[in-house]
Amino acid sequence: MSSKEDVLEGRPVLVQKYGGSSVATPERIKAIADRIENSLDESRLVVVLSAMGKATDELVDLAHQVSKNPTGREMDVLLATGEQVSVSLLGLALQERDVKAISLTASQCGIRTDDSFNIARIKSIDTTRIREELDDGQVVIIPGFQGVNPDNEITTLGRGGSDITGAALAVALNAQACEICTDVDGVLSADPGVVPGAKLWQELSYAATIEMASSGAKVLHPRAAELCMAYGVPIHVRSSFHGRQGTWLSLIHI
Fold first, then answer.
1. Pairing of strands 177-182, 139-143
2. Chain segment 234-248, per-residue pLDDT in tens
3. Is the pTM of this model over 0.90?
4. Which of 50, 86, 100, 169 gives 20 to 30 Å between its CA and that of 156?
């Protein structure tokens, strides 16, 4: 094994998930590419992306224009295209910066789900391809919100499913953390658009976060917090637009 490969293998894996607002425009995708380029010396990166901005809503609207009740397999084939666009664009932006990067489909990165279209659950992840690409020095870019069922059909995980993808990958790769990168600074005590001066929590328990998310707070998908809690993977909810610390989720709220 070469010395370069030794260095790569010694770096921890970090999973970063970026939501739709973080990749809403080409300019924001380029900003994320800059952010990734500047953090490569610290970790090997697996990046999970949502569809751009309101792309998923627009696809749902298109479906309703041709069908009274768009569900099932064809709906998942349609909805999965949103993330395919964002991951390929980030791959191109990173390559423009001479950063080695590769985008993978859900099938290529081994995300296996049950056979429930539109509301699938991840059953397993074969990380072989992901680890090979990481060891080759690639930033691995993965579409959130989707997988493939036992018949190799595309499935989607439901609203907020990209959070679940990020958490499941962090667990499967034994990552140092799962970063949920969003358009706010972290987990706040109230909606900052409604309550000016809302407090930013520096640390919260998984349990408190799950309760907040289950009650309708737009923090992250409760299933994502449940996965990381079960396997002890830290979650860092932070802004996509600056490098300051956000909110760390852990077993005990200190």
1. unpaired
2. 999 999 999 999 999
3. yes
4. 100
The Cβ-side half-sphere exposure at 229, using a 13 Å CA radius, reads 17
224/218 Cα distance (integer angstroms):
13
> What phi, psi does 149 have (nearest 5°)?
-90, 180
Nearest to 220 by CA among 169, 159, 139, 155: 159
Q: Cα 135 vs. chain centroid, distance in angstroms?
A: 21
Mention every residue, 6+ apart, whose C-beta is less than 8 A from residue 113: 120, 121, 122, 123, 147, 148, 149, 155, 157
- The yes-or-no verdict on residue 185 having pLDDT over 70 is yes
**Alpha-carbon torsion angle 170, 27, 51, 58, nearest 10:** 160
Average pLDDT over residues 87-108: 97
Residue (of 55, 88, 80) closest to 153 by Cα position: 80
Per-residue pLDDT at 9: 60
Residues 125, 146: Cα–Cα separation, whole Å: 12
The answer to whether the beta carbons of residues 231 and 171 sit under 8 Å apart is: yes
Are 201 and 39 contacting, i.e. CB atoms less than 8 angstroms apart?
A: no
pLDDT at 1 over 60: no
Q: Which residue has the tokens 């409760």?
A: 222
> Residue holding tokens 């080695």?
100
Q: Are 161 and 167 in contact (CB under 8 A)?
A: no
Q: How far apart are CA 113 and CA 156, in angstroms?
A: 9
